[in-house]
Amino acid sequence: MKGKLAIATAAMTTGLLGPPGPAPRTQAPTGYTDTPFLPGSKWRVHDDARPRPPVIAPGTFSTPEIPGKPPSDAVVLFDGASLAAWRTEKGEPAKWKVENGYIEAVRGAGDIFTRAEFGDSQLHIEWSAPSPPKGDSQGRGNSGVYLLGLYEVQVLDCFHNLTYADGQASAIYGQSPPLVNACRPPGEWQQYDIVYTAPRFKDGKIDVSGFVTVFHNGVVVQNHTQILGTTEHRALPKLVVHGPKAPLRLQDHGDPVRYRNIWIRPLGEVQ
Q: How far apart are the C-alpha atoms of 224 and 216, rounded to whole Å?
């Protein structure tokens, strides 16, 4: 009788408690301390002590009507309302037009420069050529984005507009034509995403060349292109020794080119 009672009690207890739970989960490794060292590095393969990259919010993409949001770690250079981040060559407030969420180049107002200086960076900038178009070749919707104030990524209305190859939109002006012509019609917003490293100098000579990669409307048009020197017209690039940082510059070429949604992310060293 006692045996039957014990069996019944055990059955009732099992029913109340339910079946045994799963075994405790073993956490996956977050890294290793016994792997080989990477060549020329103080870090091992999958090194658990290697610093993790900072977490950011990536922002959003633009539409023809609405500019996207920049990444959370970007420096906003034009937010649709203010030219406070920009100046003239003489240091005075920039005199370009600001309206309807964009800035517009004003003939004779001169180039504008960022007040801050930047070195190796990721730059996002959107531009729109005048519509209806006027002129042809280099006389149609002409402006430029000057990295470090010296090296021009050409802005030009190249939609059904013939000009010399190294002067097309997204060319490194006078040096390297784009891989393809990715221009949209005038009046539509176009996007440049530019990643560049500044040249380094030693004893008055180039020690490490500068390079630039450009996406035009999402299409690769410059793929790690070497910067040969300063931007010149009908002349060879020149060597100008400068520091690792300098202002960005937007060109007044006499055409009312518009810009919006300008931001930049200085690039640090990978740990």
A: 14
